[in-house]
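U., I forgot to send this yesterday:
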Amino acid sequence: MKQLVVLGGGYGGMRICERFKDEEVAVTLVDRLPYHALKTEYYALAAGTLSDRDVRIAFPEGEHLTYKYGHVVKISPETNSVHLQDGTELFYDDLIIALGCEDKYHNIPGAQEFTYSIQTLEESRKTQQAICGLTPGAVVSIVGAGLSGVELASELHESRKDLKIRLFDRGPSVLSFLSDKVSTYVQEWFEEHDVEVINNSNVTFVTADDVQNGDEAYPSNLTIWTAGTQPVKVVRDLGFEADSGGRIKLTEHHHVPEHENVFVIGDCASLPYAPSGQLAEHQADQVVDVLQAKWDGKKLPKLPEIKLRGMLGSLGKSDGFGIVMGKQALTGKVPRLLKSGVLWKHKKIK
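Result:
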């Protein structure tokens, strides 16, 4: 029986297990958590509007599915093995790396030491606890106005209207990479709800008490970092060829060029799309097709272009924004309802 090891129980790793749960393949999934967690909802967990039970989904069950809980410290493609922090060594015929990402601090002094994060469930819990301890009138600074920063800022405003929320955005308008309609709508939403947005920001260092933006210091009681990501360190240490963001370059069949049995999916993979849970699931489906053909001794399939349905974002519990069908911009209640529906469906089918 083929021995498949999957590193990471995120969206991609979860999809792999779902596809193989009834197959004659020995699948071992390694994750630090004993359940799949909805990373796209970590902003709400940090803001205090969801409990961590709301973002958990049980891993699928199957006769040949095995789960190993631990921290991956080394991947050795030369010996087809994976090393865990507790000393366990796992051997594989094929490996799928889906370990996700961590914050990228861009060498900004103090950023790693003095900011909170929403990259993992554990970090989101810590951020929530820190926010709960803030007194009325305290200032929360969010550095980075991508999707995570925007959703966190709006949710936190809704959760703690007594706090002063400040969002640092490198662009001329928040989410300017999406569309003018979405960017304008979100920027105006923040203005109407007294969330301060610092556009064209240039954060140069962070301390425990302030955020230095250019020549001006902005006092801050708590600072949260959402200004970029990179693959986790154990993946970066592999030394495989990577793009400028540190993501591993792959063949058309999603494996590392020099190791045909090492596949990479999700945030660690270099693809012509922005990382997302939706993308990781699509990529996982294609990797399953490749593995099945490989194990059956068939020619590897020509994989179709991945077509994403779009993206949806929240502005609190009753407002939102999105891009669907590749280009159609949506704002208001409809995209928020659509996002709730997508989340419900994701939980329902698991």
